[in-house]
Design goal:
The complex is a heterodimer. Chain A is mainly α. Chain A has helices at 2-28, 33-38, 44-54, 60-72, 86-121, 125-140, 143-157, 173-207, 210-218, 222-259, 265-274, 278-306, 308-313. Helices cover 80% and strands 0% of the residues of chain A. In chain A, α7 (143-157) crosses α10. In chain B, 30% of the residues lie in helices and 22% in strands. In chain B, a hairpin with a 2-residue loop joins β6 and β7 (167-172). The chains are: A mainly alpha, B alpha+beta.
């Protein structure tokens, strides 16, 4: 119980800190949203009118207070550029980014875990050399490059997948799957490489532990040792990596959404920063940070589930 | 078994990466057997016009708002221009032609504009367009209905009268030859307010649907009032694609039909697959010199910089030769008002430039800070060439890149800069273009001050005779050149790429995608 109280208060502190930082940092950037909206040739009067309309003439602390209280009441304000409620805009984009994140995480787990396991068991000299080259490439090559290459191969040359855009899940399940597959894969590749590396190293480390020798002496089969003992002990670092991967995927989607012309949050974030759309940027970053904090929290809970020792320490 | 498959996939992926990494060099092979159609230059002879079909156009920026009176983004306006019509429209040379208006008169004192409307114009919802709708629209634009004015161009309206259902008389507070060009703004149906969700206009295409951040769909308006201009196409889809490389790949895959602004690099990649329409876009790219800071306040220094900057070389290296050299703040795209010959006044001459620097007391040169908006690679590239060129006369240029939003505030509004590079987009009226240099104009961020110039612009504004007006504007252009107000570099071409089999895209002195004439040939 104390654990949850502690977690909740740190959650709240993070939220307040993040909200203060993003609000004031963005206000400090040069660039007047009213002028950016109206363009190069707007005259002073027009700009002033718009500033008043957008509430940009009011003092900063007042605006911060309004924003934060608004969020607790479910009112996130209105976008300066689109002149539509922020909540509506984000709601329109959320499914895209969410689909990308979930699908690429799925790909990472489905491809990364078995592959890592397999490679760890087949640890020969050649496999490890080839593997380390491949994973190194996977980690160091940026996702947008994979994106372009996937479009080129599967979209242009083979015409198997659409080169851009997306179909909503509600319209056609396979259509949606098809349109999200390439971008998710582009994001997943580097994550898969990371997972493989970690899993292999962890398993090789664990295999040298005393408890493995004990198990072997006990006469347990290799399979039972691997899945019953090694893997269970190796799960903690893997969970950490997967947790980080989710945050990473959210970041990766910013670039990948642009490459595949997907109208998601990342795409929106870039645009709203350049147009100084304060209410939109602030709310989105707050959203993203809440997601990241929540994921960390879930990972923390999973640790306790996987390893009883953590639970007893509190 | 499953694991084996996974390893194989990964290996295949790796091989493919290696292959594609090398394949860029033999791109020409693809192009050679790509298609048997016409190549880039010879494209304007039209063959059989086919009615029907769908065209997909890649747009790089997102729609800000579908309501034409709320939207401020140029791209949005040029897409929605197909849905809305104004009293007047522009042709390819920038001349104003009647659209919803049948014809118009301007009174001798220049204060009264009478528009007679066509009597067969209907909005997309089926209602008839009458004088009442014009009054509603213009009162909204001018802020005469109690709200804030939406456009400063309309603030000059004093009152509007409607003698009949198809006649509108607009009274101006003062004389202004610049008002006429403002009449291309869309006319909206009276008392309908939901354009943000379902825009209704009287243009050649009807709004069909909009998926946020992804696609705007328009359908042909079969009841368009100008029977000769009822579009060929059934449907137009504007696809929002922020990454230029992605839109090129999509065009390669046959999923995009038109890219309105394509780079030379992109054209190379597409090869024979596409045709292009290319030409000046009425943009003026300048290296603005802040006339109120030392030593740029001296005419000799500004002239020396003009003599040292080799514009031909900039056009060649930055724009791949696709641009027209300028000599003043005006593009030949608007032929009628353009003063020819000014582009050669400062032919590159380093010796002469050095002489002027010496006369101004800067024989050893000076340091110059050049602030450039980093969002525009084109301007950044231009700046890099200029840095090298100005070394010749010992001006040590310190290149400073800032984000465009910051540029708007620091450079454009607060005038905290020495020199900058920017492009002014096309306007239909010369006054809107040349006003930037009038002494007391708020946005004269160059801080140009010249009494005679101000006088010429004022005379042009008051002129009632077009030839007289053009003469004044031409004079004004010459003054900018003589005084070396800034370095006027070029009007870079806009290049529109279309897939083979598509024809009819035209260039205008403002960004306008006129899709009425676009059609398939087979």
């Amino acid at each position: 119980m104390r654990y949850f109280a502690y977690k909740f208060s740190s959650f709240l502190m993070t939220f307040i800190l993040v909200s203060v930082i993003i609000f004031f940092v963005f206000q400090m950037l040069p660039g007047n949203p009213a002028h950016i909206i109206l363009g190069l040739d707007a005259d002073e009067q027009q700009i002033r009118n718009l500033e008043i309309e957008l509430g940009l003439d009011r003092p900063l602390p007042e605006r911060y207070f309004d924003w934060v209280t608004g969020i607790f009441q479910g009112d996130m304000g209105e976008s300066l550029r689109y002149q539509l409620p922020v909540a509506d805009i984000i709601q329109d984009r959320l499914p895209v980014t969410l689909s990308l994140t979930v699908l690429s995480l799925l790909l990472t787990v489905v491809i990364g875990l078995p592959l890592g396991l397999y490679i760890a068991q087949k640890d020969g000299k050649w496999t490890s050399i080839v593997l380390s080259i491949l994973t190194q490439l996977g980690i160091s090559i940026p996702s947008f490059w994979f994106g372009f290459m996937l479009i080129l191969l599967f979209g242009v040359v083979l015409s198997l997948f659409p080169t851009y855009g997306y179909v909503p899940w509600s319209e056609s399940f396979f259509g949606a799957l098809k349109s999200f597959f390439l971008p998710s894969l582009a994001i997943a590749i580097s994550n898969i490489a990371v997972v493989i590396r970690y899993l292999r190293n962890t398993i090789l480390d664990q295999a040298k532990m005393d408890y493995v020798r004990t198990a072997q002496c006990k006469g347990l089969s290799e399979k039972a040792i691997m899945y019953g003992h090694i893997l269970r002990n190796g799960l903690i670092p893997i969970l950490t990596i997967l947790g980080l991967t989710i945050a990473d995927t959210l970041g990766g989607s910013i670039i990948i959404e642009n490459v595949f012309a997907l109208p998601g949050l990342g795409n929106l974030l870039i645009q709203s920063i350049t147009s100084r759309d304060f209410p939109l940027v602030q709310t989105m970053i707050l959203y993203l940070s809440i997601i990241v904090v929540t994921i960390n929290f879930i990972v923390d809970l999973l640790y306790r589930l996987v390893d009883p020792r953590i639970r007893s320490k509190g | 078994m499953k694991l084996n498959l996974a390893t194989r996939t990964l290996t295949a992926l790796f091989v493919f990466i290696l292959l594609t990494a090398c394949s860029n060099t033999d791109g020409q092979n693809h192009e050679a057997n790509g298609s048997n159609s016409t190549n880039g230059q010879e494209n304007n002879h039209s063959s059989a016009e086919v009615s029907g079909g769908v065209v997909r156009i890649a747009m790089s920026t997102e729609i800000d708002n579908l309501d034409p009176y709320v939207s401020a983004a140029t791209d949005t306006m040029s897409m929605m221009d197909n849905v809305f019509d104004g009293l007047l429209d522009t042709d390819e040379s920038g001349q104003l032609v009647p659209a919803i208006a049948e014809d118009y008169d301007i009174s001798d004192d220049g204060l009264q504009y009478t528009f007679r409307l066509k009597d067969n114009v209907v909005f997309h919802d089926g209602s008839e367009l009458t004088a009442e709708d014009v009054v509603y629209s213009y009162e909204k634009l001018a802020g005469l209905n109690g709200g804030e004015p939406i456009s400063s161009q309309f603030e000059i309206i004093e009152k509007i009268e409607t003698p009949s259902d198809f006649e509108v008389i607009i009274h101006l507070k003062e004389r202004s030859s610049a008002f006429l060009a403002a009449n291309i703004r869309p006319i909206l149906p009276a008392d309908y307010d939901n354009h943000s969700e379902k825009p209704i206009g009287a243009g050649p295409f009807k709004f069909e649907s909009y998926v946020v951040g992804q696609e705007l769909k328009l359908k042909r308006n079969d009841d368009y009032y100008d029977v000769d201009k009822i579009p060929f196409l059934d449907e137009v889809q504007f696809k929002i694609m922020p990454d230029p490389e992605s839109s090129i790949l999509a065009m390669q895959a046959g999923e995009i039909d038109i890219i309105p602004g394509i780079s030379a690099q992109g054209l190379l990649q597409l090869g024979d697959q596409v045709k292009t329409v290319s030409g000046p876009q009425n943009m003026v790219q300048i290296m603005a010199l802040n006339n109120s800071v030392e030593p740029l306040n001296q005419k000799e220094v500004r002239q020396a910089i003009n003599l040292a900057v080799d514009k031909d070389m900039i056009i060649e290296t930055v724009s791949d030769g696709d641009g027209i050299k300028l000599g003043s703040n005006f593009s030949p795209a608007m032929d009628f008002y353009y003063e020819a010959g000014l582009e050669d006044v400062y032919a590159t001459n380093i010796a002469e430039a050095k002489k002027l620097m010496k006369a101004a007391g800067y024989e050893d040169g000076f340091e110059l800070e050049l602030t450039v908006p980093s969002d525009y690679q084109f301007h950044v590239d231009t700046a890099q060439v200029i840095v090298e060129q100005l070394k010749e006369i010992d001006i040590d240029v310190d290149l400073k890149l800032i984000e465009f939003s910051s540029w708007l505030e620091n450079v454009y509004t607060d005038e905290q800069y020495e020199a900058t590079i920017i492009g002014f987009t096309g306007k239909l009226d010369p006054y809107e273009i040349l006003r930037r240099y009038v002494t007391d104009y708020k946005r004269n961020f160059i801080n140009f001050e010249h009494a005679q110039y101000d006088e010429r612009i004022d005379q042009a504004l008051k002129a009632t005779n077009p030839t007289e007006m053009a003469r004044m504007y031409k004079d004004a252009q010459s003054i900018l050149t003589e005084e070396a107000a800034s370095v006027f570099i070029m009007d870079p071409y806009r290049t529109i790429a279309m897939t083979n089999g598509l024809e009819g895209m035209k260039m205008y002195p403002i960004q306008k995608f006129n899709l009425e004439d676009v059609h398939y040939t087979e």
